[in-house]
Design a protein that fits this description.
Blueprint (H helix, E strand, L loop, with lengths): L7 H14 L4 H8 L3 H13 L3 E6 L9 E5 L5 E7 L3 E7 L5 E8 L6 H17 L7 E8 L2 E3 L4 E4 L9 H8 L4 E5 H13 L5 E6 L3 E6 L3 E2 L29 H5 L2 H4 L6 H9 L4 H25 L2 E5 H4 L6 H9 L11 E3 L6 H17 L1
Parallel strand pairs: 3-6, 6-9, 10-13, 13-14
Antiparallel strand pairs: 1-2, 3-4, 4-5, 7-8, 10-11, 11-12
Helix pairs in contact: 1-3, 2-3, 6-13, 9-10, 10-12
C-alpha cells in the first residue's frame, strides 16, 4: 500500500506541477505524477498551510463534479533584480510568476566607489520598504552586468563596457543582508525570454542594447567553457570595419548596438523610432535600413550555426515589432536553405528583462528546492 505521508519529494513534485502548468487539479496531479489521490490531498493541504498555493476557482465540468483549480500564491516569495549599466541602474521587485510588482530606474554613471555601492543598496532597501516586503518571504538580490561573469563563483572575468572592479561582488555582499548573485545581462534577459515563452525549445536570444550580447538557450543558458557563450556582439561582420570598444574592428557591436540609432535622439531609442515613423524622418529611415542589413547578416549566421529561432531583444528588439515582416524579407534573401525567415522573432518580454532575469535565479532556485 502506498505511504500517504507528506514527504519532501512529493511536496516538491506537487508544487512544481502546479507552478509549471499555471493551474492544476488534484486529479491532474495524481495522474501526471503517478501518486494516489489521498497522498496528493495531504500534500496540497500542507502547501496551503504553508501559504504556497490556493484555490483559484473551478475547472469547467467534463460531465462530473467540477474540479478545484489550484494555483501557486505568487507573492509567497519575492526577489529583487538589478540591471547595472554604464549610464543607469534599474531595480525590479518580482513575485514567483515574474510579475513586476514595482520598479525604479535611476540615471547615474557607473563608478567603482563605495558611495555608488551604497546607492545601489539604498535603492533595494527603498523598494522593499515601499512594498512592505517581509524579510521571511524575500529570496535575494540578483545583479545583471554588461560583463563576462562566472555565475557559479560570482566573479567577473572580463568587463570592457564598464570598468567593474574585481571586488564588486564582495562589496555587494557587504552592503546587503540578503543573498546576492551576479549575472551577465544578456544571459539574464535570454533566460527571462525563455521562461516567458513557456517552451523549452532551443532558442538564440540576440540582445540589441547599448552593447550587443546574446544567449544560447537549450533548456538552460549555454555559457561555454569560459562563460563567453553568446558573445555575439564580437562576431566579425565587416572585416577591418568600424572600431569596436573591444579594440578590434568590424564587430557586430559597432554596427548594431542601440547607440547606432539612439545617438541621433540623445540616447532615447523610442524617440528614434517615433521620429522615423510618425514624423517621417527620411534620414533616420536610411540609418535604420542600413542597420537592418548588418543585423540580417548576423541573424543569418546565427541560424546557420544553431538552426533554431532567433529572438531579437534588448532596446532595439523591443521596438522592432512593426518592422519584423520587412526585416524577415531581408534575412530571407541571405538564407541558402529556406524560403522564409519566420524563425526570426521579436522578444515577448520587453520590460527590464535583464533585471527580471537576475531575480529569476532566486525564483527558480526556490521552486527547485521545495
Amino acid at each position: 500500500m502506498e505511504d500517504n505521508r507528506v514527504t519532501a519529494r512529493n511536496v516538491g513534485d506537487v508544487y512544481r506541477h502546479i507552478y509549471r502548468n499555471g493551474t492544476s487539479s488534484r486529479q491532474m496531479i495524481a495522474a501526471d505524477l503517478g501518486i494516489s489521490l489521498p497522498t496528493v490531498t495531504q500534500n496540497l493541504n500542507y502547501l496551503k498551510d504553508c501559504g504556497l498555493i490556493f484555490n483559484a476557482g473551478e475547472f469547467e465540468s467534463t460531465g462530473g463534479r467540477k474540479a478545484n483549480m489550484l494555483s501557486i500564491m505568487p507573492d509567497a516569495r519575492l526577489a529583487v533584480g538589478m540591471d547595472v549599466t554604464q549610464t543607469h541602474v534599474s531595480v525590479v521587485l518580482t513575485d514567483l510568476k515574474l510579475n513586476i510588482l514595482d520598479s525604479a530606474k535611476t540615471h547615474v554613471l557607473f563608478r567603482g566607489a563605495d558611495d555608488y555601492y551604497e546607492m545601489l543598496a539604498e535603492h533595494v532597501e527603498m523598494i522593499l520598504a515601499k512594498n512592505g516586503v517581509d524579510p521571511e518571504r524575500f529570496l535575494g538580490v540578483g545583479i545583471s552586468l554588461p560583463a563576462i561573469v562566472n555565475e557559479l563563483e560570482n566573479t567577473i572575468s572580463d568587463s570592457k563596457v564598464i570598468d567593474i572592479p574585481d571586488d564588486f561582488y564582495g562589496q555587494m555582499q557587504k552592503k546587503f543582508p540578503y543573498p546576492v548573485r551576479l549575472f551577465n545581462d544578456a544571459n539574464a534577459a535570454g533566460w527571462t525570454e525563455l521562461q516567458a515563452r513557456g517552451k523549452q525549445q532551443p532558442m538564440v536570444y540576440l540582445s540589441l542594447s547599448n552593447s550587443v550580447g546574446g544567449a544560447v538557450l537549450m533548456n538552460r543558458v549555454y555559457t561555454g567553457r569560459n562563460w563567453r557563450g553568446g558573445e555575439f556582439g564580437h562576431m566579425t561582420i565587416v572585416p577591418d570595419g568600424k572600431a569596436c570598444y573591444c579594440g578590434r574592428h568590424g564587430c557586430l557591436n559597432a554596427y548594431c548596438s542601440a547607440r547606432v540609432l539612439s545617438d541621433f535622439t540623445d540616447g532615447d531609442i523610442r524617440q528614434f523610432f517615433y521620429e522615423m515613423k510618425t514624423n517621417g524622418n527620411r534620414g533616420y529611415r536610411r540609418v535604420f535600413d542600413e542597420y537592418m542589413q548588418y543585423l540580417a547578416r548576423a541573424v543569418n549566421n546565427l541560424r546557420m550555426c544553431f538552426d533554431c529561432d532567433v529572438v531579437l531583444g534588448g532596446m532595439v528588439g523591443a521596438c522592432m515589432e512593426e518592422y519584423i515582416g520587412e526585416f524577415r524579407d531581408i534575412v530571407k534573401e541571405l538564407a541558402p536553405f529556406e524560403s522564409d525567415a519566420d524563425y526570426v522573432k521579436i522578444c515577448s518580454f520587453r520590460t527590464e528583462p535583464s533585471a527580471v532575469g537576475a531575480a529569476l535565479y532566486f525564483v527558480d532556485d526556490f521552486v527547485r528546492q521545495i
